[in-house]
């Protein structure tokens, strides 16, 4: 029998949150969003753990960790402990569990396991009373790794690019979330949708925002992240935008989004 429960963090009486960043479509700014929000949460004095759960390891390199082992693969496979895999970053209060290409093999290895959807949840259990926020960057798919991320999470944050195919993919994602709520994590919430790479000059971008906001209403964050070259540059320097160029339009937008997420307790 599997026991389900809410995750309560030891943060002065406040409940912490575990967020999974999910979108089965790649290139929507999911990793950039996880890094940026995590950094701004930490800058605001919150204790934050980033979990890179994508074998591309872009989150790891985006905070200055390249080819870092042991990491999340070793954690879920039981060959390394949490104390061995949690690494500090240059930002106080911000730590990360890195990933490597080895994680790509986890899909095959987990598929036959009885508790295959709960590996990440169980692995993070010992530190869930330590952080105000745990942010899980899931791969661009709806496979076993992403399901693990959503089972371990309190809520899903969905970055969405303003284009037609992104709207089509949103329907499939919501169907998957409903199945997980029904069978694996009944407490999973939709924390919210936010727009990334927004170009106000295109009519399509404006139409997508209007349609999504009209349908999902209060599930959509008001902050919109614009298309911004400085956001694209920051990962190559291994820095979050809060340290690379906080005054650029993308940096200001993610700062505003972080404040909105904290304010709403999404």
Task: Give a description of the structure.
- It is a single chain.
- The protein is an alpha/beta fold and 266 residues long.
- It has twelve helices and eight strands.
- It has an eight-stranded mixed β-sheet, with helices on both faces.
- α8 links the parallel β6 and β7.
- It is globular and about 50 Å long.
- The two termini are 29 Å apart.
- The model is unreliable at 1-13 (pLDDT under 50).
Protein topology:
Blueprint: E1 17-21, H1 30-43, E2 48-52, H2 58-62, H3 72-77, H4 82-85, E3 87-88, E4 94-97, H5 106-110, H6 119-124, E5 133-137, H7 144-152, E6 155-161, H8 164-183, E7 189-198, H9 203-216, E8 220-226, H10 229-233, H11 241-244, H12 249-264
Parallel strand pairs: 1-5, 1-6, 2-4, 2-5, 6-7, 7-8
Antiparallel strand pairs: 3-4
A few lines on this structure:
This protein has twelve helices and eight strands. The protein is an alpha/beta fold and 266 residues long.
What does the main sheet amount to? 8 strands, mixed
Strand element count: 8
Strand content: 15-25%
Rg over alpha carbons = 17 Å
Give the strand order of the largest sheet, numbering strands 1, 2, ... along the chain.
3-4-2-5-1-6-7-8
Q: What would the principal axes of the Cα set say about the shape?
A: globular
Query: How many H/I helices?
Result: 12
Query: What's the pLDDT, averaged over the residues?
Result: 89
Uncertain residue segments: 1-13
What structural category do the secondary elements indicate? alpha/beta
H/E element sequence: EHEHHHEEHHEHEHEHEHHH
CA distance, first residue to last residue: 29 Å
- The helix fraction, in percent, is 40-55%
